[in-house]
Amino acid sequence: MSDQVALCVDIGSTYTKAAAVDLATGALLGSADHPTTIDTDVMVGFAAVRDELAVGEPLVLACSSAGGGLRLAVVGYEREISAEAGRRAALSAGARVVHVSAGRLDRAGTAALRSAAPDVLLLVGGTDGGESSVLLHNAAALASAQLGVPIVVAGNVVVRQEVCDILEAQGATVVPTENVLPDIGELDPEPARAAIRSVFLDHVIGGKNLSVDPDFAGLVRAVTPDAVLDGVSVLAEQLRSGPSGIAAGTRPGGSVVVVDVGGATTDVYCVLSPDAEQTSLRREAVGVPTHRRTVEGDLGLRWSAHALLAAAADERLLADPERQSLSAWVEARQEVSAP
Predict the structure, then answer these.
(1) Is the domain of 182 the same as that of 309?
(2) Helical H runs in 7-150?
(3) Same domain, residue pair 88 and 123
(4) Could you tell me if residue 108 is inside a domain?
(5) Which of 194, 214, 239, 331 is 20 to 30 Å from the Cα of 140, by its Cα?
(6) Per-residue pLDDT tens digits for 88-120
(7) Alpha-carbon distance 85 to 189, whole Å?
(8) Contact, 62 vs 226, CB < 8 A?
């Protein structure tokens, strides 16, 4: 065994999973899981998997979606353009998009935002040098609402400083970044993704009351879906770069799709090859990101099992005996999971 070992940990809402990896060889040394101790302190579950693997003092690489992960609301200009660009950028950052608002915020709109209880707001609107009045109006509305959550500003860069000044004058925590939609058909999610990740680590994860251990906030490096998308990107690059044959029959340069079926949601991650990217350019007003994630928020194997079963029945994927058997299993699981 190498002296340098990484302990890769995912602290989820249901289970805490860990894998020990030899950094010199890439060998998997072992894996462990433990129910996430979210009702007490998540560091208890972390200690359990670390002790089970018994790898001494490893380099810890942790991500988390416990406590609902990263809840994010998008405030934009046009629902199908800037607001949609913001939504796509948020999904690529691993956020759970709990609300999307388009147009000028009014009292009802700010009430809906407050009700959605986001951890972070993503404020977008206008292409660079384009329409700016809605973005400025929404900045003033959010400043007055004082929702008490960090705001990532990723709209028209011409008025970015003015937007930040409006928000900061009312005490808001503001993180400015590049426009998610600098031009029609040109989606640029990476700067916003980096800003959202920074806000999650600096302002959100420590405030979810998941642990009283001061080391917890420093332990977590990413929200789980963001880390998974990075992993899929690495896989895609490896498949393109060498003939060594990671997977038999894999075509170098091909796109990669990964489906992660969880207890509450199903996440789909996609990294396009350069050829596939070219075929998709400018087919949409928003554009298509080469690295993206989508979420089926009501399809999962535990908390959303009822919805998954109903969707399978609607698509006629189940014979009657299968449906009846699975219905009984779902009911039993719901009884076990009920508080």
Answers:
(1) no
(2) 42-53, 82-92, 107-116, 133-145
(3) yes
(4) yes
(5) 194
(6) 888 888 888 889 999 999 999 999 999 999 999
(7) 8
(8) no
